[in-house]
Structure formats: C-alpha cells, structure tokens
Amino acid sequence: MLSLVTYLRERPGARVEDVARAFGITEDELISDLDVLPLCGTSFRGGDLLDIDTDGDRIWWRNPGALSAEAAAPLRISADEATALLVAARAVTTLPGLRESDRQALLRATAKLEAAAGEAAGASSRLSVTFESEGGVFADVDRAISERRRLWIRYYSPARDEVTEREIDPIRLVSVGHTYVEAWCRRSEARRTFRLDRVAEIKVLDEPSAPPEIELRDLSEALVQPAAEDPEVIIEVSPGGRWVAEYYPHDSAEELADGGLRITLRTPDPASLRRLGLRLGGDGRIVAPQDLADSARQAAREALAAYEEAGAEPEEAGTAPRGAVSEGTYDRQEPGR
Description:
Number of strands: 11
Shape: extended
Order of helices and strands: HHHEEHHHEEEEEEHEEHEH
Distance between the termini: 44 Å
Structural class: alpha+beta
Strand order of the largest sheet: 6-5-4-3-7
Largest sheet: 5 strands, antiparallel
Radius of gyration: 28 Å
Strand content: 15-25%
Mean pLDDT: 77
C-alpha cells in the first residue's frame, strides 16, 4: 500500500484496471485498499489525511501535497512519551555499577529533555522505578567487559535445578525483561546467556577475556535463538498443547490428524525441555531423543509418587494438576542453560 501511494501520486486519474494489473491484484482488492488509504496520513488533523477517491473507473488524489516535504510538520514528543523517557532515564542513573561518565552524560541528556518537555515533565517526577537487586553482579560484569577480563561464576540453572561453576568471557549486557550477560562459556565451549539474578557468586579474574570472533545476534525478537548445529527435539502435542509452537522457536510444526502438532525444534541443552514435558501433562509428549523422553517419564513418575506419599491429590493440596508446572514458573525468555 505504501507503493500504491507513490504510484497514484505520479499518475493522476489512473484507471482502476491498470493499477490493479500493475500490482497483481483484483479490482475489488484495489477498491478495498482505496477505502483504507483515506484513513492514513501524517496526522489526524484536517488536510493531513490522504484525500483519495474513485468513481469506479479512475482514481483521483485530491491533496497530493499532504505528503510533500514542505507540508511536513516537525515531530513533537508527546506528554506520555516524555514521561516514559524521563522515568526510565532517572531510573538508569541510579543503577549500581554504572560508569560515572555514562551517569553524567545521562543526567545532561535528562536535563535537556526536561527543558524541552516543559509542563509534560511534571508527571514524571511523581513516578519512580526500582531495579532488581542484582547491582553487585551487574557492576562486576560491567567492569569485566570494560577491562576485558574473564569472570568466574556460580550459576543456578532452574531447568536442571543445579548450581554449576563456570569461567566465562563476557561479551555484552542485554536487557530483555531481565538483565543478562551474553558470554563465551569455557565450560561448554559455546556462546551462552546468563541471567544476572541467578548468579550465586561472581569473581573478576586476572586472566584476559578472549571470546572468539562471533556475530552479535539481534535479540529484539527473543533471547533464545537455537543454532542449526544444536540437537533436535521432537514433541507431539494435542490441540491443548498447540501453544508450544507459539512460545518456542521451532524448525517445523506438522499438523496431526487429531488437531495437534508434531513440533521439531533445536536446543543446545535438550534436558532443559524436560520441564516442558512435565508441564504439558496429557496434552503432549516428547518423542525424541529417546533418553530425554525416558527422563521426562521418570520425572513424572517421581512427581506422582511424591503426591501419593503425601496422601493427597495435587488438586486437594492446592498445587498444580498432575504432570503440570505452574504458569508462574515458566519464563519463555529464559535460556535454561
């Protein structure tokens, strides 16, 4: 439709059949698009919306100057946008471990934004944000990155319910819901992502950090991005488990006769999906690899045995249904490594 706007501006009075043919659509589809275009423009003020209509044979654009450079008004920040920026900026300036030069630069930028926002800045002074209590770890990671030094950490992995010791070469800090450090893990000899609030202990080592040359990933879509060389896992789910295909990056999702899916995905640590198998309960099962499927079944048996020993069904005890993991324990962005 953006191309259609440019096309019509250059061809006043274009014939409907010619435009439809040029864009490879039917005339009815074109008329439907033309009904939407008058709702578009640089703003909702009079004269800024596109004034495009048709008599069924030809298309007329009454105000092509609405999109000209001369008619464009300077962009202005809204009160809501100013409030959000100022609250976030003030919160970041209090972040433990922030380098003083960065803090001063942020304070100067905040002062300029306050002056530009005028009265709109008033609301932001009544709001505040508190970060998670991970400041000491953040400071050590930030220092290690700036000084190019290796880190030693004790890290809790909820997927395996264990604490491991690792030496990592930090690459960068990222924030996707929580704060993470992306690093080269010397224990696994691969890139890994660690959530800071799950670091039980941390030390900055004297050894220089020397991660291999790797391409930084775009993490805006998801934190976990499986690689082609990662092990393959196959899961079959009933209609009640189709949500797995929406929450987990996967290679394929084949439709099954009962309305379910056969999902193929990859992960560097297949054992981290055992909890998914438990959470699915009767809505799905792990098909491959076989050792992971066996492990999930054994974990389910142990969970049922624990309930039987307690002498109560899960529902009676006020916990999650059999074979399930409560929604609150699931973090779709946590790598579980």
